[in-house]
Amino acid sequence: MNQYKKSIEDILKKCPPGYPVSNLMGYGAPVNLEYFSNYDDGLAYFIANGQVFVYEADRIHGLIFGAADAGDDLEGEEEGED
Asked: Does residue 24 form part of some domain?
């Protein structure tokens, strides 16, 4: 393996519990999430709507970090100014 090639698993291993994650790509349609929970033995755990979601980390193609509603708040402010 190329020493400079990073994987999603490498990122998840360093990601702190409770870190905001808004979307996951790799299982068809994007999956809406809220928080990263933990990574253990090839499995990535996320929280959304009070439920735990478990995914095989090597099948995740991308993650969007940050709160999902952060961009929505900005759009709402712009519309309200008109």
From this structure: yes
- The mean pLDDT values, 10 residues at a time, for the chain of 82 residues are 77 96 90 96 96 95 84 45 48
Buried b (16+ CB within 10 A) or exposed e, 34-49: bebbebeeeebbbbbe
CA dist 78 and 82 (Å) reads 7
Model pLDDT, residue 76: 44
Find the domain containing 67 and state its range.
Answer: 8-81
60-78: b or e for each residue (b if 16 or more CB lie within 10 Å)? beebeeeeeeeeeeeeeee
Q: How many domains does the chain have?
A: 1
Give me the pLDDT at residue 2, please. 60
Global pTM value: 0.76
